[in-house]
Write a structure and sequence with these properties.
- The protein is an alpha/beta fold.
- The protein has one domain: NAD(P)-binding Rossmann-like Domain (Rossmann fold, 3-Layer(aba) Sandwich).
- About 45% of the residues lie in helices and about 15% in strands.
- The chain has eight helices and seven strands.
- The chain has helices spanning about 15-25, 50-65, 90-115, 130, 140-160, 175-180, 185-190, 200-210; strands at about 5-10, 30-35, 45, 70-75, 120-125, 165-170, 225.
- Strands 3-2-1-4-5-6-7 form a seven-stranded parallel beta sheet, sandwiched between helices.
- Strand 4, helix 3 (about 90-115) and strand 5 form a beta-alpha-beta unit.
- Helix 1 packs across helix 8 (about 200-210), helix 2 runs parallel beside helix 3 and helix 3 runs parallel beside helix 5.
- The radius of gyration is 17 Å and the shape is globular.
- The termini are far apart.
């Protein structure tokens, strides 16, 4: 049976690949973006995850058009990389408010219908740097690490209602963002990855789809790395 699947930040990169994966499985997929610009073959709703009112409005629109959200993937995120000594308050606040607090807003709104239905899947998209750390990304790493604590706490709150919540932690994935890196930097990164290559967005999407599947019904509060082994031991 098709489900109503929400992917925040699903207009590009990993988010778009996740949306396309669920579309291929026959689900009703809705992606959100700040612009709300149309995407071929997908339902799009404008949403700014830094605003509770915007998140509520997006969910209400989805519920009216398609029904309650049954799978919610909190993927929307930004980076504002700098060494901490040079990082402005705005750089810290914007990244935490989007990546961490935004995901919590989405999960809070999604749990309304999921707990009533006693069924649902919530998946946070974190990062390998959440537990490894990364110089110049104190704000980003903190936001992505916070998702782990938030997910595990929520898993304890709503597990008895049949709702699972898990975290995907991608490593270096071949996207437009990584394409901008110099060849020297790319070679340095690949040299630290046991599988000696970048991952693909579709490989992340496959892991997300598994966590949303019936086969993953007994998995909750987990962090699933998709990083080629980069984060082993962290």
């Amino acid at each position: 049976m098709s489900r109503v699947v929400l992917v925040t930040g699903g207009n590009r990169g990993i988010g778009l690949s996740i949306a396309r994966k669920f579309e291929s499985l026959g689900d009703v997929v809705v992606v959100t973006s700040r612009s709300g610009e149309p995407i071929a073959g997908l339902n799009v709703v404008q949403c700014d995850v830094t605003s509770t009112e915007s998140v509520d409005a997006a969910f209400s629109t989805i519920e009216e058009k398609f029904g309650p959200v049954e799978v919610a993937i909190a993927n929307a995120g930004i980076t504002k990389d700098k060494l901490l000594v040079r990082m402005a308050d705005e750089d810290i606040d914007d990244v935490l408010n989007t990546n961490l607090i935004g995901a919590i807003r989405v999960a809070r709104r999604a749990t309304r219908s999921m707990t009533q239905a006693r069924s649902g899947r919530i998946i946070f998209v974190s990062s390998v740097v959440a537990l490894m750390g990364s110089a110049g990304q104190v704000n980003y790493a903190a936001s992505k690490a916070g998702l782990v604590g938030a997910a595990r706490s929520l898993a304890r709150e709503i597990g008895s209602r049949g709702v699972t919540i898990n975290v995907i932690a991608p490593g270096f994935i071949d996207t437009d963002m990584t394409a901008e890196l110099s060849e020297e930097r790319k070679n340095q990164i690949v040299g630290n990855i046991p599988l000696a290559r970048y991952g693909s967005a579709s490989e992340v999407a496959d892991a997300v789809a598994f966590l949303a599947s019936p086969e993953a019904a007994y998995i909750t509060g987990s962090v699933i790395p998709v990083d080629g082994g980069l984060g082993m031991g962290h």
